[in-house]
């Protein structure tokens, strides 16, 4: 099942079905228990009425009961013999004995039912002569026993709830009255509720499934729109297109916004890559064409071969290739090493190796300071070299490089010159690749426009940053801030 709508509808239907089945079973059990208790209460009332009559020594054949079809009665003695039954009772179960024919022998001590003893009559007469009252039995006040069974009354068999109540006659004979109340109302009510549930449950589940399907479909409609637009973007390779953003503020709207942000970043990345390839091809074409021309001229006319120019073009081509290779490695996410090095010593070393600078570089590094940072020695040396090259191209008469500690343990390398400086609106653009603000400069003087871009990328890879501002001398001040090794 690959559809989210189908899975959501099925899941909701299963959950609702389990909840309804559990609730339905609970309702049926509670309903059955309540109706059974009511039937038991009715049976107990009838049993106690008959037991009260037995306690008053009412003869068996004169016992009065309620509607005998609804409340069958069976009376047994201590030995389990049936001594009395209600009229038209033909069969019974659930009372301890299934006999419905009274035992012809009278219970001992009873004067009713056409039998008795002379002693008992004399005693009664004596009591009357003494002005006393006849003897009286009692009804057991304990909770009666309940049981379910069946009874056949007037040819119809039905289920009953029986209550058993004990009574003691004035003669001390203990009898048990089994009275029943019909369970037809309980069975009919439970059957009606069960039938309603069996009919209503499937219909309700269909409604739940349909509503869940429609709601999920409506909720996922923007997702389908996003998918179609992404498929169209993939097919057309047009990264300028954007997916539709719904007006809601839910997860789907955030997904659409994030997708558009990703497309924007991807478009910018692809555009930078295209511009980089185009600029790199353009930059490489010039020294290669110049070198080829000089070699072709040298091959035809050896005396005209410009060896220094060919060497310069070769060196420039080599430097450009190295820059492009380093940028490719940085774009690929290459992480710098974690070598601990002294940035002050690295600055002195780089300045000491620059013998061909047109302007001497002034170095200001405190001897007592510790300027340890962690990173790649080669890449950081490349950053310092690129900053010094940039300062040499724009300075009039002075280039200064200094190293100082900063807050939070950072180390700052500042390279300043007394040139024209960088306009504020161009201070971020100069860090883009192949950007040269002075288009009138020759390529040999101006470089390829990769030095500052490489310097900022390397600084970012080392957890630092590279910024440009105004120098006190009026030129540009480049600051490289790196976190200390501590």
Write the topology of this structure.
Layout lengths: L3 H52 L17 E4 L5 E4 L3 E5 L24 H12 L8 E2 L5 E9 L2 E13 L5 E9 L1 H53 L14 H50 L6 H25 L7 E4 H10 L8 E4 L7 E4 L1 H18 L4 E7 L5 E7 L25 H4 L4 H11 L3 E6 L5 E7 L4
Parallel strand pairs: 9-11
Antiparallel strand pairs: 1-2, 1-7, 3-5, 4-6, 5-6, 6-7, 8-10, 11-12, 12-14, 13-14
Labels describing this entry:
486 residues, alpha+beta, Helix Hairpins, Heat Shock Protein 90, 3 domains, 7-stranded antiparallel beta sheet, 14 strands, 48% helix, 17% strand
Describe the structure.
The protein has about 475 residues and is an alpha+beta fold. The protein folds into three domains: about 5-190; about 240-335, Helix Hairpins (Orthogonal Bundle), CATH 1.10.287; about 335-480, Histidine kinase-like ATPase, C-terminal domain (Heat Shock Protein 90, 2-Layer Sandwich). It contains nine helices and 14 strands. It has helices at about 5-55, 120-130, 185-235, 250-300, 305-330, 345-350, 375-395, 445, 450-460; strands at about 75, 80-85, 90-95, 140, 145-155, 155-170, 175-180, 340, 360-365, 370-375, 400-405, 410-415, 465-470, 475-480. The strands form three sheets. Strands 1, 2, 3, 4, 5, 6 and 7 form a seven-stranded antiparallel sheet that branches. A hairpin with a 5-residue loop joins strand 6 and strand 7 (about 175-180). The longest helix has about 55 residues, at about 185-235. The radius of gyration is 54 Å and the shape is rod-shaped. Residues about 105-135 and about 440-445 have low confidence and may be disordered.
């Amino acid at each position: 099942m690959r559809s989210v709508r189908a899975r959501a509808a099925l899941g909701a239907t299963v959950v609702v079905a389990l909840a309804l089945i559990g609730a339905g079973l609970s309702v049926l059990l509670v309903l059955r228990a309540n109706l059974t208790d009511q039937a038991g209460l009715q049976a107990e009332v009838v049993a106690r009425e008959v037991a009260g009559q037995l306690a008053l020594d009412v003869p068996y054949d004169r016992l009065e009961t309620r509607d005998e079809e609804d409340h069958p009665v069976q009376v047994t003695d201590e030995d389990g013999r049936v001594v009395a039954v209600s009229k038209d009772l033909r069969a019974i179960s659930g009372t301890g004995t299934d006999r419905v024919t009274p035992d012809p022998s009278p219970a001992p001590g009873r004067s009713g039912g056409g039998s008795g003893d002379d002693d008992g009559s004399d005693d009664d007469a004596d009591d009357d002569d003494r002005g006393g009252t006849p003897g009286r039995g009692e009804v057991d006040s304990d909770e009666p026993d309940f049981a379910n069974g069946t009874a056949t009354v007037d040819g119809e068999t039905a289920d009953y709830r029986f209550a058993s109540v004990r009574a003691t006659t004035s003669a001390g004979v203990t009898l048990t009255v089994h009275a029943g109340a019909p369970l037809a109302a309980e069975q009919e009510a439970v059957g009606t509720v069960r039938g309603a549930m069996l009919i209503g449950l499937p219909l309700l589940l269909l409604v739940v499934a349909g509503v869940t399907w429609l709601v999920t479909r409506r909720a996922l409609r923007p997702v389908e729109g996003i998918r179609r637009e992404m498929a169209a973007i993939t097919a057309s390779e047009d990264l300028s297109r954007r997916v539709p953003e719904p007006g809601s503020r839910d997860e789907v709207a955030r997904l659409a916004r994030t997708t558009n942000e990703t497309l924007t970043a991807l478009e910018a990345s692809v555009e930078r890559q295209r511009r980089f390839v185009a600029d790199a091809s353009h930059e490489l074409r010039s020294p290669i064409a110049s070198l080829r021309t000089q070699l072709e001229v040298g091959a035809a006319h050896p005396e005209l071969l410009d060896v220094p120019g060919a060497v310069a073009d070769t060196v420039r081509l080599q430097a450009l290739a190295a820059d492009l290779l380093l940028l490719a490695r940085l774009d690929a996410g290459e992480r710098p090493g974690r070598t601990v090095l002294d940035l002050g010593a690295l600055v002195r070393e780089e300045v000491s190796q620059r013998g061909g600078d047109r302007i001497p570089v002034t170095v200001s590094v405190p001897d007592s300071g510790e300027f340890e940072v962690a990173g790649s020695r080669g890449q950081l040396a490349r950053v310092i070299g690129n900053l010094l090259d940039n300062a040499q191209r724009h300075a009039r008469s002075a280039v200064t490089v200094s190293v100082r500690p900063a807050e939070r343990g950072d180390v700052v390398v500042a390279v300043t010159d007394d040139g024209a400086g960088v306009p504020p609106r161009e201070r971020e653009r100069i860090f883009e690749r192949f950007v040269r603000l002075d288009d009138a400069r020759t390529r040999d003087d101006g470089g390829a426009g990769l030095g500052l871009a490489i310097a900022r990328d390397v600084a970012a890879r080392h957890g630092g940053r590279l910024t440009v501002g105004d120098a006190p001398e009026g030129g540009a001040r480049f600051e490289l801030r790196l976190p200390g090794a501590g």
